[in-house]
Specification:
Elements (H helix, E strand, L loop, with lengths): L5 H6 L17 H20 L6 H11 L10 H4 L16 H11 L19 H13 L5 H11 L3 H54 L2 H4 L4 E3 L6 E3 L7 H13 L1 H4 L1
Antiparallel strand pairs: 1-2
Helix pairs in contact: 7-8
The protein binds a DNA duplex through α2 and α8.
DNA sequence: CAAATGGTCGGCATTACCTCA
DNA sequence: GCTGAGGTAATGCCGACCATT
């Protein structure tokens, strides 16, 4: 099971599989967004100029330089079914102008592979999914470098990594929406219950008001403001004594000011 | 300096394929 | 073997943003 810190992965494709990653500063989502475009200028050349120091990098560079040529490897078995898929457009860099142009041409071809068979849907391996999940926990978006590096690590195309992250964000949002919906539902039920209680209380108070003279309506320990009908139970809350007294005095001198 | 243009991105809705009960 | 439901990879479109002209 491969477990690699994403900050490490995204820093350089050279580090893939070599454990020689360099820590990269964390990026916020906005940072990613803003950085994406800026990085484009130097992203492509840096990847293409990856000096292959070993066979691992050699294969990675091969993928990058010619994304339409599938690399033969165990991990790429799943990806191989996409060699000629109907990708709308490969938005990821890494192939140069000629490759981009080629991509534009090839991207709109049929959903069939070289053999004329209908495109098969990729199922990511557990290992691939696990790595993607781990990285998603750290970063829900990728910048081009990160995407490219991850794609190379997983033997997928950058577009596939991008799509996975898009779908993963959508799933996260959907779950979050469901959770919030449940929460709102519970809040609504609680408020409804509270509302019922308050209505019942109001009815009881109104009934009490009708059947009893005002001077006898309240226990000796309870004070009610005639303006707002606010009730203060002095005996239950001695700390309010001062408030009650002050309020009381205001009731009869300046009732409106008290409320 | 402002407007037009082109490129890239993420979000979103939808489609298409696959698996499983 | 067939079928419907659910999961998910992939597609297509859109608006936002940025760089360039």
């Amino acid at each position: 099971m491969v477990s690699v810190g994403f900050d490490d992965i995204c820093n350089t494709a050279l580090g893939l599989g070599l454990g020689c990653f360099v820590k990269q500063e964390n990026l916020t989502q906005l940072d990613h967004r803003q950085q994406n475009n800026k990085e484009h200028d130097h992203f492509l050349p840096s990847l293409l100029s990856l000096g292959s120091s070993d066979d691992t990098n050699q294969s990675a560079t091969t993928i990058d330089a010619g994304r339409h040529h599938q690399q033969a490897s165990s991990l790429s078995a799943a990806a191989s079914s996409f060699s000629n898929s109907s990708v709308k457009k490969e938005r990821d860099l890494g192939g140069g102008d000629q490759d981009l142009e080629l991509e534009r041409v090839c991207s709109r071809v049929s959903d069939e592979d070289e053999d004329g068979n209908p495109r098969k849907k990729l199922r990511l391996t557990k290992q691939q999914s696990s790595i993607l999940e781990d990285i998603f926990k750290e970063h829900i978006t990728l910048n081009p470098k990160q995407k490219q590096a991850l794609a190379e690590q997983l033997n997928l195309r950058p577009r596939q990594v991008e799509v996975w992250f898009q779908n993963r964000r959508a799933r996260t949002k959907l779950k979050q929406t469901e959770v919030e919906g449940e929460l709102l539902k519970k809040c609504y039920q609680a408020l409804t219950e509270e509302n019922k209680k308050l209505h019942k209380e109001v009815q009881e108070l109104k009934a009490l008001k009708l059947t009893t003279p005002y001077s006898m309506q309240l226990p000796a320990t309870v004070t009610m403001c005639p303006c707002c009908e606010r009730v203060v139970n002095v005996s239950e809350n001695p700390s309010r004594d001062a408030f009650a007294l002050e309020h009381k005095s205001q009731f009869f001198s300046h009732p409106s000011a008290a409320c």
